[in-house]
Amino acid sequence: MPALILLALVGFAAQLVDGSLGMAYGVTSSTLLLAIGTNPAAASATVHLSEIGTTLVSGISHWKFGNVDWKVVLRVGVPGAIGSFLGATVLSRLATDAAAPLMSTVLLALGVYILVRFTLFGLRKDRLHLPLRKRFLAPLGLVAGFVDATGGGGWGPVGTPALLASGRLEPRKVIGSIDTSEFLVALAASLGFLLTLGSQGIDFVWVAALLIGGIAAAPLAAWLVRHLPPRILGSAVGGIIVLTNTRTLVRSDAVGLKGTPAEGLILGALALVWIAAIAWSVRAYRAERAVEREAAQALTTDLAELDDETAAPVATPTA
């Protein structure tokens, strides 16, 4: 029972992050399942089965709050479903010894990307409302879907930054559209795993625990997307993913550093980098907010002066 409660809390936290940041449900959940020794293909299958429910509720919640662009959902989601089905088939055919380091490497790369992206650059907003092209969305969906299935997560870490970097869709609609289209990706990946693995290694009680936690968080995350600072959240989540998957890799037979001083040094150095990244993000966020407040105050002052000039009486010439 404690393990199921923990899984439900992980599902809640992962969906809270995913729904407000547009990424990290699969990466966070898969990282935990790998850390406790779950078969990589079974871990990815468990996460994607739970995501069928969480992404459905999340999509509906984002739609209710006006965070969804349905053209983007279809243009990126359908190729994403194809890519995720192919990725599930590939991962299911790999031996566990080969799949575990591969999956951790993919997750580590995604974690580094999230950490660097949100710590150093934040969100781009200078090209909002320009049209997104099919020739950009279709390949993006195909690649992101494949990475998502083989890495146990990746739809958001690949898709969300790419759409944000384009600057052509406001951040809340990027996050809402990516979360909504992920339903198609999760459904296709789950079918791929079930056709190749059957139910082997999949604990449906674990699926239910992740699902319950995720469904509980989805409406709250859709509301929070307008209020949480994505820069700080991205740095925090990226650091957790980097630390956990680095630990998995250094302890693998391929690296062979388990229990050595080098393991502690590597993880300690990464922890310091992570703390510094969060501190940097907090400082940058406060600086951005200060600039926004100054701009708002300047605008208010200018408008007040304009109103005073307009309201001033006009002197009439005397005869």
From TrEMBL:
GO cellular component: plasma membrane
Entry's transmembrane regions: 72-92, 98-116, 136-155, 204-225, 265-285
Membrane topology category: Multi-pass membrane protein
Compartments where located: Cell membrane; Membrane
UniProt keyword list: Cell membrane, Membrane, Transmembrane, Transmembrane helix
Keyword hit for Coiled coil: no
Any Pfam family hit: TauE
Highest taxon listed in the record's lineage: Bacteria
InterPro entries: TM_pro_TauE-like (IPR002781), TSUP/Inactive_protease-like (IPR051598)
Keyword Magnesium included in the entry's annotation: no
PANTHER family linked to this entry: MEMBRANE TRANSPORTER PROTEIN MJ0441-RELATED, MEMBRANE TRANSPORTER PROTEIN YTNM-RELATED
The family this protein is said to belong to: Belongs to the 4-toluene sulfonate uptake permease (TSUP) (TC 2.A.102) family.
Protein name stated in the entry: Probable membrane transporter protein
Organism phylogeny: Bacteria, Bacillati, Actinomycetota, Actinomycetes, Micrococcales
